[in-house]
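User: Some background: our group keeps a shared notebook of sequences we're curious about, and every so often someone picks one and asks for a predicted structure to add to the entry. Today it's my turn. The entry only has the sequence so far, pasted here. Could you supply the structure so I can complete it?
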Amino acid sequence: MSENGFTEGPLLTAARNTSTSLWNDSSDLDELTQSISFGGVGATCNPVIAHTTIVRHIDTWGPRIKKIASNNPTWSDSEIGWQAVKDLSVEAAKLLEPAFREHNGRNGRLSVQTDPALHRNKDALVEQAVEFHNLAENIVVKIPATSVGLEAIEEATAHGVSINVTVSFSVPQAVRSAEAIERGLDRRVAAGEDISQMGPVVTIMGGRLDDWLKIVVKNEKVFIDASALEWAGIAALKKAYSIFKERRFRSRVLSAAFRNVNQWAELVGGI
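Assistant: Of course. Here's the predicted structure to add to the notebook entry:
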């Protein structure tokens, strides 16, 4: 069984026999190894995921973090923590290299999230995105789908960074993000740069859209069939997918924040 409760059979079927790719929402090396055995071709890391992994493997990571601190006596706790995130990301990315080669950069990527504290600073986001991009050849960098984030997404893409758009919950956010990626890719092509191995994706956190609607219904005392509140995220993902196909965006839609089996089963095969 996987962490989401699906048996190995359906996971393998989805990953190997449909156009759907399976990415693991963790960079824990043990979990990622299991995911790859199920057909997983991607994974993610952020400060929360890294912290969970470090706590789970504190016997390994405790001494490593102490060594980072010892080797960099003037660093702040934040700088030490981010170095641990980067080290963990590089190691996880290594496990995905075979998939990266097999899929020519479209899959086999490890997502690394930019620092949320930089969300108002386009230049800082781009600088960090380029830094993370250079950690390993199969890194994809998370930038939020905010107004500043969209500017950073275009600029980082033009620098050759493959983007995973995050903090995205709606069809308009996804479409605007894909358009920003397209502008960045076009700029790169116009400059004579190669984009053949870039693998941008646009995330929609479907389950979190459902979560928010449930809060609104509760707070505003709206009477509605509770089962209807499990489908908004699915509808948003399907609508975004159809627009991406219609407009021939070169990025792909990534579903995240699963809350029920339909948020997986209804999307397998890219329908």
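Suggested note for the entry: Residues 117 and 206 are 24 Å apart (CA to CA). The two ends are 25 Å apart (CA to CA).
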